[in-house]
Amino acid sequence: MNARTSWSVLLGAAFLMATSAVGPGFLTQTTVFTQSLGASFGFVILMSIVLDIGVQLNVWRIIAVSRKRAQDIANLLLPGLGYFVALLIVLGGFAFNIGNVAGAGLGLQALLGLDPKLGAVLAAGVAIGVFLMREAKQVMDRFAQVMGFLMILLIIYVAILSAPPLGEAALRSVLPLEVDFIAIITLVGGTVGGYITFAGGHRLLDAGISGQALLPQVNRSAVSGIGVASLVRIFLFLAALGVVSKGLVLEESNPPASVFQLTAGALGYRFFGLVMLSAAITSVIGSAYTSVSFLKSFHPLVARQENWFIIGFIAISTLVFVGIGRPVQLLILAGALNGLILPITLATMLLAAYKQRIVGQYRHPLWLSIFGGVVVVLMAWMGGYTLLQQVPLLVD
């Protein structure tokens, strides 16, 4: 692999992780927290970025030095654990992919006025088209990059138009008026939780970028992925802050659309449609690709026919949305379970980092282990709390 190809894969893995994170929920979450916390949400973003980097560096490095996917590492650590982790990832990925497909439909509705179900089918067709191509993974890398850049440019444009109080945002990012720890943990889970944790790491492994000698490149790719997702988050925060600081109220049913519409009128609403479509369709691709990568350990057929399994994953997600609409209870349960996936998988990676039979002579940095341990404890507490809160709703 030459230097140019290597850089393309590293950038593709970074954007795959970032665009997998930036889905419909990411957009809504950012605007809702901005409305409730104001400029102090900048501190939440800053803290979550630090924790996100810690998570991704831990996971990507251990996957790289072991030259194994997360589920295989888990099975080596404790027989059967990998299958349990794979089941959690695939079920969570499938449930959220239904929401991603729905988001793509809503994006096309805002952009072109199409019926959301028709829009979802068209968007799913584009995602499936990526995996019908000969060099599907290279096309996936480039598609994620193009859509990611498009989202960033549109959100920056709206952020400039909204004229946020930059001085206040900068000040409150280091001296907040209030600190919302639940918001911090929610952002970490939304950015590097569930299948997103492994999207980039598994992509690098598939491309042959692994081993201790390549850790500097792995580190750069991991940090770049968090950087791209954080850039989207920061500029969307600034755009929303510009709106709420003027005393305008975001529409409760669709807060991110309100930000774009209140800032740039009808054109802004079209821009929102394009951003939502880009965010959703890249999340569809990232979710399907990463979820299927966890099935490769179940049977050799999955690895041989990987693209067809990915296509089937996208198609079934779309059929569920078109057939029965957005299954709210499934999404609620998946959201609660997703909060538990990160502490389980990250704890597994951290334990594996100290097993010579898995990582050989590699010595994992102590500061990364401490960082990871803090995230495991925080996310386990938050995930358990969220799950307990949702159980009564599911029973009803």
Automatic annotation (TrEMBL):
Pfam families: Nramp
One Gene Ontology molecular-function label: cadmium ion transmembrane transporter activity
Gene Ontology CC annotation, any one: plasma membrane
Membrane topology term: Multi-pass membrane protein
Sequence intervals crossing the membrane: 37-55, 76-98, 118-136, 143-161, 181-201, 222-249, 269-295, 307-324, 330-354, 366-388
Location of this chain's protein in the cell: Membrane
A single GO BP: iron ion transmembrane transport
Keywords assigned: Membrane, Transmembrane, Transmembrane helix
Main location (coarse class): membrane
Protein name: Mn2+ and Fe2+ transporters of the NRAMP family protein
Taxonomic source organism: Cesiribacter andamanensis AMV16
